[in-house]
Specification:
Length: 291
């Protein structure tokens, strides 16, 4: 949420409190404004139109915008907009807008916004990358698109909270591992475990190397059906490799849109550097070394 939005939000909260007193401000639901349907609020120095309120509401983020869709919410926003104008007018009356330090800040902000729009315009003018450029970038960054190995993992976990319990849990897990190696189906043993997978026939599902201790252990097994006993913070488990998928790099056509998205920051940097080079060449830039 930007400073402008936060400012309006805070003023809206203050206006909701101040609305009880009305003062010289009238909201869009007040009888005094019923004669002009285009006016949302009036004050002694001017008025806020409904178009102004709608325009301001469109600037708000979705979650905040919903609060100002109702008539009461639009009245609140109109009041906050008048409060903002009153504060601005008071600042001008005191000459604050003419203070050198404030003018310097305004210039800095104006320059930043102008440069930001200039760069956005350069990006809009630049043609999109063609397939040759995209494919070249893909070939140079193939590893960015490679999916690591995955394993479909089964587990029978014996919970152990203390060191004494771990010894007994390991003995149980080793026996279960032996039964699995002997050919007993995982689904037939899963109910003997303590983990949530006991109601899913012992399956943890597809996992990558960094997902868990069990995933790392399973991916180090050689072939489906291999079993290993591992310890984890929960306890001790017999882990079985059910299925394995080797690392895969999708073809260019499959990830073309992702390539364009990943390539965009470097293209923007190149456009920025090219623009600076043109401007410097035309400006005869000379940097004088300090002594």
């Amino acid at each position: 949420m930007g400073p402008h939005t936060i400012y309006l939000h805070l003023l809206a909260a203050a206006a909701a409190f101040a609305a009880c007193e009305q003062g010289r401000l009238r909201g869009p639901g007040d009888a005094g404004l019923s004669g002009d349907p285009t006016v949302a609020a009036r004050y002694s120095g001017g008025a806020i139109s409904r178009a102004d309120v709608e325009r301001e509401a469109r600037k708000l983020p979705p979650g905040l915008k919903e609060q100002f869709l109702s008539p009461a919410g639009q009245s609140e926003l109109a009041r906050s907009m008048v409060d903002k104008r009153l504060l601005v007018e008071e600042a001008r009356r005191r000459g604050i807008a003419n203070r050198p330090e404030l003018k310097a800040q305004v210039r800095d902000l104006e320059e930043r916004l102008a440069v930001q729009e200039l760069l956005a315009e350069e990006q809009r003018r630049a043609p999109p990358p063609n397939d040759t450029e995209l494919r070249a970038w893909y070939e140079a960054h193939r590893s960015d698109f490679t999916d690591g190995a995955r394993a479909r993992v089964g587990r029978v976990m014996i919970r152990a909270a203390t060191l004494q319990q771990r010894a007994a849990a390991r003995a149980r897990a080793e026996k279960i591992a032996g039964r699995l190696r002997a050919g007993t189906a995982l689904a037939a043993i899963a109910g003997e475990g303590d983990g949530p997978e006991r109601v899913k026939a012992g399956e943890l599902g597809w996992m990558k190397d960094g997902d868990s201790t069990e995933a790392r252990a399973a991916l180090r097994l050689q072939k489906p059906g291999d079993v290993v006993v591992v310890e984890s913070p929960e306890g001790v488990a017999a882990v079985v490799l059910l299925e394995r998928q080797e690392p895969r790099t999708p073809p260019f056509e499959e990830v073309k849109a992702a390539v364009a998205a990943k390539m965009e920051p470097s293209r923007q940097r190149q456009q920025f550097e090219a623009l600076l080079a043109r401007l410097r060449a035309g400006a005869g830039v000379e940097v004088v070394a300090s002594h």
